[in-house]
Structures are given as structure tokens and as C-alpha cells.
Amino acid sequence: xxxxxxxxxxxxxxxxxxxxxxxxxxxxxxxxxxxxxxxxxxxxxxxxxxxxxxxxxxxxxxxxxxxxxxxxxxxxxxxxxxxxxxxxxxxxxxxxxxxxxxxxxxxxxxxxxxxxxxxxxxxxxxxxxxxxxxxxxxxxxxxxxxxxxxxxxxxxxx
Length: 158
What we know:
Order of helices and strands: EEHEEEEEHEEEEEEEE
Radius of gyration: 18 Å
Number of helices: 2
Oligomer: single chain
Number of strands: 15
CATH class of the largest domain: Mainly Beta
Shape: elongated
CATH superfamily of the largest domain: RNA polymerase II/Efflux pump adaptor protein, barrel-sandwich hybrid domain
Helix content: under 10%
Number of domains: 2
């Protein structure tokens, strides 16, 4: 389930199933043509900020600011972290219970924003946990093969 916020005022929920039934084709890079209720719609992605999940989309000559949140983003938001306010994050906690499949960092490592920190398996899905900011890893409190509970401390930044 995806949560979509348009112009910071309208919120919609969209399932993966409904996305799969969309009648849409990419005409040129970042330009799309879709049919909605037998009506032709042209869409263009004007700007994109993957880390903030923010896109500017032009649909039939109207421009919209669109935030897209997947299930992990929604869980992070439910834990009290604000998507896009990553500069203040000093700790990474488990967004859900699961098994640590891989740990890609160790204490003292310098990381950049969006570097892969670890992979957490939960509900038979692999969830890649990325660095929310640039910084140095102070400590890693987990190891590969370990089971963690929701909100367990995983990584601390200096």
C-alpha cells in the first residue's frame, strides 16, 4: 500500500494491485501517457528528490507536488521520524521485528546519505536500511544473523 500526498493537502492510498492495472506507457524519458476512465492523460515528471520522496508532476498542464510513501516510509513516520528531516537522526532503530541478513558498516565508517547500512528481513521481505544522512558510524549494536524486535537500536551516529 502506498500513501500519496498531493500539494501537502490531499492524501490518497494506492494498492500495488491498482498500480498494476494502470493503462500507462512512457512515451519519452519522464513523459507518460495514460488512459483513465477512457480519458487520455499526459503526465511529465518535472523534478524528483528520491531522498525526500518528493516529485513535481505536470498532468495536463497542471503542476502538482507529490510525496510518495511506501510501507517502510509509513512505518518510519509512525515511529516518529519525519521523512526528509533526516539530518537530525542520530540513531537507527528497527522499524519492525526481523532478522538481520547483512550489516554493511562498522564503527568508524564514514557514510554518505543513502548508503546501504544493513538489510533487515521481515515478513519474508528484505528491507534495505539506508543512511538518512552523511556521517560517521559511532557503533553498530547488532550483527548478521541476529533477530531484533521493533524499535531495537541498530546503529548510532557520532
